[in-house]
Amino acid sequence: MSIKRSIWMVAAAFLAVSASLGTHAQTDREKAIAERIKPMGEVCIEGKGNCAAPAPTVAAGPRTGEQVYAGACVACHSAGVAGAPKFGVAAEWSARIAQGEDTLVTHSINGIRGMPPRGTCATCSDDEIRNAVKHMVASVQ
Q1: How far apart are alpha carbons 95 and 92 in whole angstroms?
Q2: 28 and 80 share a domain?
Q3: Distance CA 18, CA 14 (A)
Q4: Residue 34: what pLDDT?
């Protein structure tokens, strides 16, 4: 058991005993101490009734190519990891661009060489992958 947890338990026990005995009212200082040492949260245990409902996620539409690139593609395409063509470096993109946009999108969706399927964006739709490809190609044209 951690020291912080032990201190919290002792302080909480002291405050609980003194409050339950009613022998003295909590002073402002004791209230301040209780506030400082109270737990920051609690573990949600399903079935115990202490779990808040998760907030529903609402899709705002497909992400732009720039958003997908910044959130996923940049990890490899900014530094050329595993042979990835670097963003904005025309010499590394020219042969790939010559294959056509549909081929680039297919490779991005299915993976090729060191690139896993969908790169590092497993949640990206095909349209979002296409947007990212267009964004990267536009950086060299």
Answers
A1: 7
A2: no
A3: 6
A4: 86
* Mean pLDDT over each residue of the chain, to the nearest integer: 83
CA distance 42 to 40: 7
Q: What is the domain-level CATH number for residue 93?
A: 1.10.760.10
What is the rounded average pLDDT of the residues 15-25? 58
Q: Round to whole Å and give the CA distance between 84 and 96.
A: 11
Directed axis angle between helix 28-37 and helix 3-21, to 10°? 140
Q: Is residue 46 part of a domain?
A: no
Residue 97: both structure tokens together: 């661009």
Q: Could you give the C-alpha distances from 113 to 78, 90, 108, 110, in angstroms and in order?
A: 17, 20, 11, 10
Give the Cα separation of 86 and 6 in Å (integer).
Answer: 53
**Do residues 101 and 49 make contact, with C-beta atoms less than 8 angstroms apart?**
no
21 with 77, same domain: the answer is no
CB 62 within 8 A of CB 125: yes
